[in-house]
Amino acid sequence: MSSTGARTGTTNVWKLLLVIDCGTPAKLKGPVQSLEVSYFVHATEDFMKLSEAVSAILSVTSTPVKERLEGHHGNPITRVRYHLTGNEAAMVLDRIATRLTGETKTTLRRNLEELLDEHSALYLRFDKQRLVQGSLQEGSGDAVRVKVKLRGGGSYLARGNAAEFYSKVLFRGEP
Fold it and tell me: CATH fold of 32-39+48-60+83-171, please?
């Protein structure tokens, strides 16, 4: 490549960075970096029914990664994982906040600190059967799992501030 081509390439990179920096700074620099939704679908479960429920209830529009697994007795299991970033991650977190049941809000509020890891990532689990029925209720065992990561591995907000941030997002100022 000639020196002129090298300079042009560099100029284009700077133009791209300038557009990204000036174009949508609020969207690119929000505290939510990513959100992951994952769940297992066993041979006895209706794959389409569960996938449609997750898409509808959480408003996930992207295509998931599907991994075929085999259970202890040779039964087929599918692991489904959505990895969302930026605006889509923030929108799904907002959607979760609007769909939480009162009982789940109470439980989450009481246990919020325990649901955070050392990097201020939030881990939520929702009952698959209730989700198919149209409600987001806390679940255990074979649940739909949601992991929310903050920008900068949690350095964006200190752990205590992360709990306060999640509380404001999930409970919207409710006592």
Answer: 50s Ribosomal Protein L5; Chain: A, (3.30.1440)
Range 148-155 average pLDDT = 75
Average pLDDT, the chain: 82
Find how far residue 94's CA is from the centre of its chain: 10
- Sorted by sequence, the CB contacts under 8 Å of residue 159 that are 6+ apart come out as 116, 118, 120
Name the pLDDT band for 162 (thresholds 50, 70, 90): confident
From 151, 143, 99, 103, select the one nearest 124 (Cα to Cα): 143
Instruction: Please count the CA atoms within 13 angstroms of the CA of 119 that sit on its side-chain side.
Output: 11
Q: Which residues pair with 41 in a beta bridge?
A: 78
Q: Which of 87, 90, 165 is nearest to 120 (CA)?
A: 165
Cα separation, 86 vs 98, in Å, equals 19
DSSP 118-159: TT--EEEEEEHHHHHTT-B-B--SSEEEEEEEEGGGGTTS-H
User: What does the angle CA 116 – CA 117 – CA 121 come to, to the nearest 5 degrees?
Assistant: 70
